[in-house]
Amino acid sequence: MVGPLESAVRGGGRNRHGGEPGRTGVLPQLAPVPGVPVLRLGPGSDGVISLLIADLHLGLGASADRPAGPPEASAPVLAQRLAETARTSQARRVVIAGDVKHPIVGTPPALRAAVFDFFAALLSEGIAVEVVLGNHDVGLTRHLPKEVLVHPATGVVLDQVGIFHGHCWPSNRVLRAPRLVVGHLHPGFRLAPSPDDPLGKRRCWVRVELPPPAQRTRRRRRHAEVRASELIVLPAFNPIAGTEALNREHPARGRSFLYGRFLSRGIARAYLFDGTDLGVLTLPRPTVRSRAASAAPRGR
Question: Which pLDDT belongs to residue 122?
Answer without folding.
Answer: 96
